[in-house]
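Q: What would this complex look like in 3D?
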Amino acid sequence: MEKRTAESFEKLPRHVAVIMDGNGRWAKKHRLSVPRGHRQGTETLREIIRHTDDLGIGALSLYAFSTENWSRSEEEVGALMQLILDFFASEIDELDERNVRILILGEKDRLPQRQRETLEEAERRTGNNTGLRLNIAINYGGRAELARAARMIAEKVKSGALAAEEIGEETLAAHLYTAGQPDVDLLIRTSGEMRLSNFLLYQCAYAEFVFPETLWPDFTVADYDRALDVFAHRQRRFGGR
Ligand code: IPE
Ligand code: IPE
Ligand code: MG
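A: Here is my prediction, written as structure tokens for the whole assembly.
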């Protein structure tokens, strides 16, 4: 099938967020292990990142592991941690060549050392790239991100660098992981679930939501294009007429 070009869309979002959900159900459907489902999901991930970059969309935020996902079995968490290493080992060269700038959203300190180092290295290596902003949320929670911002702002007030009266919406935005990036325009959650599950709470204030039924490992570039088309035909009012 022909790949769609940017010009074939009436308009494109500047920032797309994706909650990659349904790996477990996909595995169950195929009588495979849950870790196998997650591995299959990384194939989708590769394709969606490439296509987003080819379309020239400015920012892509992917929910890979939430602060709540630690409650899963040791085996599953271990498999997800291994996938993080495998993903960066196989993708980092191409992403860097594509001029993609990687940013990890979330608390890296709670991750095992190898994962932490891999993620920090990916951020360092691509830090000066000027292409697609690829945000990968790992050990991320929207509420934790807001609490972190509040702490940083409070420190500045305490030290006298900032006056409490000066704190506005922009101050908060500037202390989020996504500082300097546009708000989310389009949020896609696969697998038919219709909730945010603590993802980008602040950044999604005026996002358009699209909920394809497809499970993440089955999600194709064509499904993604359909979501982009839905977005293009949504009327955004931002509270106006
Ligand atoms: C999403 O797939 C990936 C992660 C949470 C890491 P799930 O594992 O949540 O898949 P379902 O919801 O059980 O189908
Ligand atoms: C959200 O999916 C987190 C990721 C996709 C990484 P979950 O499957 O963990 O969310 P809930 O539990 O269905 O809300
Ligand atoms: Mg799920």
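A: To summarize the key features: Residues 11-141+183-232 form a domain with the Undecaprenyl pyrophosphate synthetase fold (CATH 3.40.1180.10). The pocket of IPE (ligand 2) is lined by residues 19-21, 63-66, 69, 193, 195, 197 (CB under 6 Å).
Q: Very helpful, thank you.
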